[in-house]
Amino acid sequence: MNTISKALKKQKITISFDENIDPSKLDIKIVDGLGGWHTTIYNIFLNNELDIESLPKSKGIYKLNINYGEELTYTEFFIYLGKPDSEELQFNFYKENGRIFCKITSKLSNELNKEIVLNPFSDEMKELFEELKKMNQ
Q1: Which domain of life is it from (predicted)?
Q2: What is the count of structural domains for the chain?
Q3: Exposed (0-12), middle (13-18) or buried (19+): which is 51, by Cβ within 10 Å?
Q4: Which residues contact 4 (CB under 8 A, 6 or more apart)?
Q5: What pTM was estimated for this model as a whole?
Q6: pLDDT given at position 35
Q7: What domain range is 29 assigned to?
């Protein structure tokens, strides 16, 4: 099991993954807002880099997005009822029976305390990825 962990003041993020997980494919974001004009994206883990300074700074409704390459995804809405300045997030990724799972724990948001499975992107999303690739060539 490989582990990456960073702490800043009272905040801490830990990401663990077994030998069957390619961390370069892993992308973890927290999105502030429900869409619209005022959306902020916090890149927690991107390009094999953990960025603890990108955790949200205020209470509110957020969306957790986890992507594994262009293959698998998971999305969850959650709430910080208070200022998340002492948040401790843990992500434990592992592969079992050909599927990727993640046990998530959060000190401040009960909605995130669960074990999830990453699911394939919809056909529409796959088509969109293909169109974007064509545009960038």
Answers
A1: Bacteria
A2: 1
A3: middle
A4: 14, 15, 16, 23, 45, 50
A5: 0.86
A6: 63
A7: 2-135
